[in-house]
Write a structure and sequence with these properties.
alpha+beta, Arc Repressor Mutant, subunit A, Beta-Lactamase, 8 strands, elongated
């Protein structure tokens, strides 16, 4: 009986320790290593390691490639997406670099924040010049292939809010600035599973993008071949769709399978 009580006390203590670790990662603004977590939570490093590994297996935390930890999908979705985006960028990095090396094209991984699209991850070619905006650039949602993908499955009411609060200004003669016309493009994007930017953000420049989805199928990012110069016929971009979809699936697998979810 006494042993049973001690066991229950130990379990409660371990749960409290795990909650402390989760709270630390939730409130922290940077990834943390095992030793830092142990020090801040007043834990033995081996105890902190066991807790982190248990939380990682169940999706509450995610271990980055450098060994540090951030909030996992489960915790990020009930707090904020910042740490989840760190994990997403990390999971996409090697997939994108490999795809760029094989195909000789720059890639962008884009996420939406309000009315803007942010380049979360990027892979560049070895050329002296890559015709893409810098990493972490903010792009208008209506003038890039990634923006079309990210908006393509949003509810109509949310699209109404976006169009009512954001002025769609022409960047080139090809930029779509009519919300009604843009909605038709979003419908086609959702139906086809890809979007094309044909000189809509810059003259002579094009890109093609596909969705990156979570394990439930919700779009969490867009993946594109970007900085394509001198494309006269946008139909020629369609040959890249299978390549992009394969890379997208690998990113999803890298992000979720390693969690054991």
């Amino acid at each position: 009986m006494e042993a049973s009580k001690r066991e229950k006390v130990e379990i409660i203590k371990m749960v409290e320790c795990a909650m402390g670790v989760l709270d630390l990662l939730r409130t922290g603004k940077t990834p943390l290593g095992v030793n830092t977590v142990a020090k801040k939570c007043a834990l033995n490093p081996s105890t902190a390691f066991r807790i982190l590994k248990t939380l990682e297996k169940t999706g509450w935390v995610y271990q980055l490639e450098d060994g540090r930890y951030v909030c996992g999908q489960k915790l990020s979705f009930v707090t904020e997406k910042n740490n989840f985006n760190l994990a997403l960028a990390d999971a996409a990095k090697f997939v994108m670099e490999d795809c760029t090396a094989k195909n000789g094209l720059a890639m962008n991984l884009i996420v939406r924040q309000g009315t803007d699209c942010h380049i979360l991850q990027q892979s560049l070619t070895k050329s002296i010049i890559n015709y893409v905006p810098p990493l972490h650039s903010v792009l208008p949602f209506y003038a890039c292939g990634g923006g079309k993908v990210l908006l393509s499955e949003l509810p109509g009411a949310l699209l109404d809010q976006l169009f009512s609060t954001y002025k769609m200004e022409a960047l080139t003669p090809y930029t779509i600035t009519d919300p009604v016309e843009y909605r038709k493009v979003l419908h086609e994007t959702a139906k086809n599973g890809y979007a094309i930017d044909f000189q809509e953000s810059s003259i002579n420049g094009s890109c093609i993008a596909v969705p990156v989805r979570d394990k439930e199928g919700t779009i969490i990012a867009s993946l594109s071949f970007s900085g394509l110069i001198g494309i006269a016929d946008p139909a020629k971009l369609l040959k890249y769709v299978p390549i992009l979809k394969e890379a997208s699936a690998k990113i999803t697998s890298s992000l979720y399978d390693c969690w054991g979810l």
